[in-house]
Specification:
The chain is about 40% helix and about 15% strand. It contains 13 helices and 13 strands. The strands form three sheets. Strands 2-8-7-6-5-3-4 form a seven-stranded mixed beta sheet, sandwiched between helices. Strands 9-10-13-12 form a four-stranded antiparallel beta sheet. Helix 3 packs parallel to helix 10, helix 4 packs across helix 9 and helix 11 runs parallel beside helix 13. Bound molecules: pyridoxal-5'-phosphate. The site of pyridoxal-5'-phosphate (PLP) has 13 residues, from helix 4.
Length: about 400
């Protein structure tokens, strides 16, 4: 008889869940840097700016005022109210504070949603290239990811017709991520309306991950699906947070807003897992949302300059092709002309050019590479010079 020690002991639901293939590369990049190699790292999934000073001060004050105890599971009332007000203003759909759940990062919000809404076998539509954590989260909730590829020729935007074709009686949820990690694609209002119409017709739930909504660069503009078609608001959970907008990735505050019964169910799950997100971080997030927004504008200006420098530079290199992303801080570059898998090329760039980027495989899109421009212009220029040399020597 196999005991828990002779069998793996690991729960079966983890069979589809493995650490991201990109992590090995990131770990290698770190090890090389530690060993003194001059690594240029364009893998960052977070802004390189400090958290704005007034936000930091709010966190420090929270500690000094001993606001260091448990809070209500779903978040302090002032923060839930501020989030509801912000969402109501920005989305043009009314949200009550009770419809907001504050969690330990938007990743935790998404985890709670899938746990609350997936039954075994439920299909969850995810458009590829996708953010790496969506499929594992769906599997962990007992659901089945249904991946629909998008095309470079269409700007990696979700095609309503492709969605319609992929639907089965088991399809329950559609995940949207605009602006997208990794492509930076921003979904336009017309396309959102068409997807909303399908959701209404086929009784689908929508999850709209809008974590990069404030990092959008003219002429692109962010539109939420609930703004494009308010009739889907009662079947949509909007996800956002302070991580990217206010350079607060380490503070771990994200939130979800949507229909009351779903938010209540997610809150119940959270009550038995993490309880409230950190009290100090919640008060810092409150300051971020209600204070001056100058830091966001400054960061956006810097990102536009870096994006333009990086994308223009990549497109000058033989064998690379890269569209200008409308949002987020990633350039999504076609490397298929280089004649090897993106994982192989990424490993070679790391070894031979000391350049770290993330290959497309983990995002469900081989043949592409994700370059983060959440780094200085100097690093971007250095990366481009190294790539030019590497390509020249092939
Ligand atoms: C598309 C997307 N959604 C959600 C998250 C999670 O954000 P947080 O750091 O708030 O958990 C990220 C972070 O990389 C992301 O890129």
């Amino acid at each position: 008889m196999a005991t828990h020690l002779t069998s793996s002991g690991i729960a079966e639901r983890l069979q589809h869940v493995e650490s991201s293939p990109t992590l090995a590369l990131a770990a290698k990049a770190k090890a090389l840097a530690k060993a003194g190699k001059p690594i240029v790292d364009l893998t960052a999934g977070e802004p390189d700016f400090p958290t704005p000073e007034p936000v930091k001060q709010a966190g420090i004050q929270a500690i000094q005022k001993n606001q260091t105890r448990y809070t209500p599971v779903a978040g302090v009332p002032e923060l839930r109210a501020a989030i509801a007000t912000t969402l109501t203003q920005q989305l043009g759909v009314a949200y009550q504070p009770s419809q907001v759940l504050v969690s330990c990062g938007a990743k935790h919000s998404l985890y709670n949603i899938f746990q609350a809404l997936c039954n075994p076998g439920d299909e969850v539509v995810i458009f590829a290239p996708y953010w790496v954590s969506y499929p594992p989260m769906v599997y962990l909730a007992g659901g089945t990811p249904k991946i629909i590829s998008t095309d470079e020729a269409n700007g990696f935007l979700p095609e309503p017709d492709a969605l319609r074709r992929a639907l089965t009686p088991k399809t329950k949820i559609v995940v949207l991520n605009s602006p997208s990690n990794p492509t930076g694609a921003v979904i336009d209002r017309g396309r959102l309306k068409a997807i909303a119409a399908i959701a209404l017709e086929r009784d689908l739930i929508l999850i709209s991950d809008e974590i990069y909504d404030r990092l959008v660069y003219p002429p692109a503009t962010h539109v939420s699906i609930v703004t494009a078609e308010p009739r889907v608001a009662d079947r949509t959970v909007v996800v956002n947070g302070v991580s990217k907008t206010y350079s607060m990735t380490g503070w771990r505050i994200g939130y979800a807003a949507g229909p009351q019964p779903w938010i209540d169910a997610m809150s119940d799950i959270q009550s038995h897992s993490t309880s409230n997100p950190t009290s100090i971080s919640q008060l810092a997030a409150l300051a971020a949302l209600t204070g001056g927004q100058e830091a966001v504008a400054e960061m956006r200006t810097a990102f536009v300059q870096r994006r333009d420098r990086l994308v223009a530079g990549l497109n000058r290199l033989h064998g690379l092709r890269c569209a200008v992303p409308g949002g987020a801080f990633y350039a999504w570059c076609n490397v298929s002309a280089l004649g090897a898998s993106s994982e192989t090329i990424a490993a070679r760039w790391l070894d031979e050019a000391h350049l770290a980027v993330v290959p497309g495989e983990g995002f469900g899109a081989p043949g592409y590479m994700r370059f983060s421009f959440a780094t200085s212009l100097e690093h971007i220029d250095q990366a481009l010079r190294r790539l030019e040399k590497w390509i020249g020597q092939r």
